[in-house]
TrEMBL record:
Protein name: Beta-glucosidase
UniProt family annotation: Belongs to the glycosyl hydrolase 3 family.
Source superkingdom: Bacteria
Pfam families in the cross-refs: Fn3-like, Glyco_hydro_3, Glyco_hydro_3_C
Entry coiled-coil feature ranges: none
The keyword Protein biosynthesis belongs to this UniProt entry's keyword annotation: no
Domain Fibronectin type III-like residues, every copy: 722-789
PANTHER family: BETA-GLUCOSIDASE
SUPFAM superfamilies reported in the protein's UniProt record: (Trans)glycosidases (SSF51445), Beta-D-glucan exohydrolase, C-terminal domain (SSF52279)
């Protein structure tokens, strides 16, 4: 490993142009190499629920982990650390040096559309799990990148909105998880798109104070993709690397700014030194380990025509799959159970809902990947029980991309074929970029399986055309209407048309879109058969429930609702899912409802269901992991990482939309359960809530300096795990405080009738407050102990001394 003196010597070998060149991306997913100092390019990849590798190609598959909300629900640092190790191994197999994860933003309100990428609503829980994630990844020699620094809790106007937040709230809530990750040794941090208190984060003073000087962060600050928009202002801040590249506002303009005296060259030197330090840590600098170029799995170049496939992550080991399966059960939250769970092996099951057949395993947006495999609940339950499956009414009206074989061609202005390849899907996000490209063409042969009006769609920017069976049925122009890269490069608008077709016909589909500057490559050809009438599908589902011992209804959001680049405007489930659940519950008293979402949804039927489970976009082993829980092979181990409301009118922090691009955090310290604690209405389910297959009594608690010792007893018939939670309160405080706040937690396991002691350490920060610096108010705190934020049966008063 190079020491600071050696790194400084290497910086000194480079002239200004060479140094500035290193501070912008060499391409979309790689930094520049510099042979003069033995530096190879660093390869970056999106996280956090898997390692996609550079770019989007469905032929490069990845292990799909449960979402970060699911990891938040585990309340299990050891498990999160082991999953971090799995991510590091995946990164190495794909030639990835820097994983752009974990996300340490908070669930400020239930409406955040990207909250499935975040752990929880609480800074302490987020910090502890974030630290475990960072350490797990970096132990494998891959850089973790806590993001999005900071106060990035809203997706609406996400490129431009400015958060207005007081310093105490910023320090105690939103900066706290990042501070913990830096103390744990994070090698990189990503700056956010949004602004805070008048400055975009890519040029915000917070990148220097507290990040670099106060916290001692010696790693690299990389921008979110396209977030650096100025030259001198951002270069004068703590921003170190502007991604992607090689375009952008640095480059020649930054060289000119340095030469004009607007930016000291010493700042450029510090940025380059940090880049070299990161390279040394991941083995990308000569003399620091593996300096080979990224493997084929991480290559950005498209597959040549005739190639069979792009290298993927390789076959997952049995241990990898077992870990993913364990994580599903550990994150599944049992909200309610009248005794119907676990199921007996002889149960006749009616399995209802589209998510039971085609599971949603991940959220939408740039973190999306192509799972190495997926198992649905239908596939798994069908080999364990007698199952009748009914999908029920459609909940997602968006078109379905055509499946393989798909031919993609890049054409010149004269329709000359410049490039061609076969793909596995009609949703094409990237393909070859070749000189003279004018048109992207996607074609496929459709075997008509049903007579009726088929629905076709084409997506992209520019002129879009569609020919069905040689007839032009669509010809429209879609102008570029956004600067948001998640929209432009992942989900451009689509246009639909219906065509009457006859069963048994073979029809050629040809979609074209023009390729214009700054319009992205993302395109889609989609086809959907005539749909079953919604009423008929609804009735068939209810009838199946009536004929079965148990009904399992899988309900979910869609990635049109929970996705990067958008927020939610209602917490209600889409489509007729609430009505379907109500009807199935009425038809079968043994109805188990499985809710698959990244954040809270309303559940007006929750008291009618025999059991309610939450699965949080569970990744590729979602079917097997959930089946383990349903049949009692594993206990549902999850606890809520965020509070679930009864009604939307009860949500205590409803302000999530910027007004004139400003978003004030008026609620201060009171988000999540803290706000509910002073609210007149109780939530449906409190932060920390979760049932297992046994019961617990909280018998005694006592405080010894900085440790709360809690004796709990398993009063049920099965062994189990309990997450003992300690909250603090200070009603007589001279300092304005939340009504209660999480101060620590510890998990214990015990057999039937067994008593065990949980040791919950309370860190000094939990009793401190920000007052221009960290301070501790003398005197005693009220210590509240229990299974969740709304139920703390043990209370004592003590002067905690965590030093």
């Amino acid at each position: 490993m190079h020491d600071a003196h050696e790194l400084a010597r290497l910086v000194g070998k480079l002239d200004l142009n060479a140094k500035v060149r290193l501070l912008a991306g060499g391409s979309v997913w790689r930094s520049h190499a510099e042979p003069a100092v033995g530096l190879r390019a660093l390869t970056f990849s999106d996280g956090p629920a898997g390692v996609r590798g550079p770019g989007w190609d469905e032929r490069r598959t990845s292990l799909a982990l449960p979402s970060p909300s699911a990891l938040g629900a585990t309340w299990d640092e050891d498990l999160v650390g082991r999953l971090g190790g799995l991510l590091a191994a995946e990164s190495r197999r794909k030639g990835v040096d820097v994983l752009l994860a974990p996300v340490l933003n908070l669930h400020r309100t239930p409406y955040g559309g990207r909250h499935f990428e975040c752990f929880s609503e609480d800074p302490l829980l987020t910090a502890r799990l974030g630290v475990a994630y960072v350490r797990g990844v970096q132990a494998g020699g891959v850089a973790a990148t806590p993001k999005h620094f900071v106060a990035n809790e809203t997706e609406t106007d996400r490129l431009t909105h400015d958060v207005r937040v007081d310093e105490r709230t910023l320090r105690e809530l939103y900066l706290a998880p990042f501070e913990a990750a830096v103390e744990a040794g994070a090698w990189a941090v990503m700056s956010a798109y949004n602004g805070v208190n008048g400055h975009p984060m890519s040029e915000n003073p917070l990148l220097t104070t507290p990040l670099k000087d106060e916290w001692g962060f010696d790693g690299l600050v990389v921008s979110d993709w396209g977030a650096v928009r100025t030259t001198a202002e951002s270069a004068l801040s703590g921003q170190d690397l502007a991604m992607p590249g090689p375009w952008g506002p640095w480059g020649e303009r930054l060289v000119a700014a340095v030469e004009a005296g607007e930016v000291p060259e010493s700042l450029v030197d510090d940025k380059v030194l940090r880049l070299l330090r990161l390279a040394a840590r991941v083995g990308a600098l000569e003399g620091t380990g593996s300096e080979s170029a990224p493997t084929a799995a991480g290559a950005e170049e498209p597959v040549a025509a005739g190639a069979s496939a792009v290298a993927s992550a390789g076959e997952a080991s049995a241990a990898d799959l077992a870990l993913l399966r364990e994580a599903v059960a550990a994150s599944t939250v049992l909200l309610r159970n009248n005794g119907v769970l676990p199921l007996p092996s002889t149960t006749r099951i009616a399995l209802i809902g589209p998510g039971a057949i085609a599971p949603r395993v991940q959220g939408g947006g740039s973190s999306g990947l192509y799972p190495a495999a997926e198992n649905s609940l239908h596939d798994v339950l069908s080999v364990r029980a007698e199952v009748v499956t009914e999908p029920g009414p459609v909940i997602d009206e968006r078109p379905t991309p055509v499946a393989a074989p798909v031919l993609v061609r890049v054409l010149g202005a004269d329709d000359a074929v410049l490039f061609r390849e076969h793909r596995l899907t009609g949703r094409i996000l990237e393909t070859a970029e070749v000189p003279g490209a004018a048109t992207l063409e996607i074609s496929a042969a459709l075997s008509v399986t049903e007579t009726g009006r088929w629905r076709f769609a084409v997506a992209g920017y520019g002129r879009l055309t569609l020919d069905v069976g040689g007839e032009r049925v669509l010809d429209v122009v879609q102008p570029v209407d956004t600067d948001d890269p998640a929209v432009k490069h992942l989900r451009p608008p689509h246009h639909e048309v219906e065509v009457a077709l006859t069963e048994g016909d073979e029809v050629e589909l040809v979609a074209r879109r023009e390729l214009a500057e700054d319009s992205g490559m993302a395109s889609m050809l989609a086809a959907d058969p005539p749909r079953r009438p919604a009423g008929e599908a609804f009735a068939a589902a209810v009838a199946a429930a009536e004929r079965s011992d148990v009904a399992i209804v899988v309900v979910s959001t869609t990635d049109a609702i929970e996705s990067e680049g958008r927020d939610r405007f209602t917490l209600a489930l889409p489509g007729k899912q609430d009505a379907l659940v109500g009807a199935v519950c009425a038809a079968n008293p043994n109805t188990v409802v499985v809710v698959n979402s990244g954040g809270p949804v309303l559940m007006p039927w929750r008291e009618e269901a025999a059991a309610v489970l939450l699965t949080w976009f569970p990744g590729q082993e979602g079917g097997t992991g959930l089946a383990d829980v349903l049949f009692g092979d594993r206990e549902p181990g999850g606890r809520l990482p965020t509070t679930w409301p009864r009604e939307e009118t009860d949500v205590p922090v409803p302000d999530f939309l910027p007004v004139h691009r400003e978003l004030p955090y008026r609620e201060g310290l009171d988000i999540g359960y803290r706000a509910w604690a002073v609210n007149d209405a109780a939530p449906a389910y409190w932060f920390g809530h979760g049932l297992g297959y046994t019961t617990w009594d909280y018998e005694e608690a006592r405080v010894e300096r900085d440790v709360v010792r809690v004796r709990v007893r398993n009063t049920g018939r099965r062994p189990g795990r309990e997450v003992v939670q300690v909250y603090l309160s200070r009603p007589d405080s001279a300092v304005t405080r939340p009504a209660r706040w999480l101060a620590g937690f510890a998990a214990v396991t015990a057999g039937p009738g067994e008593a065990v002691e949980a040791l919950v350490r309370v860190p000094q920060r939990a009793i401190g407050h920000w007052d221009g610096g960290w301070a501790v108010e003398p005197g005693a705190f009220t210590v509240l102990v229990g299974p969740h934020a709304g139920h703390t049966p043990l209370t004592l008063t003590a002067a905690l001394r965590p030093w």
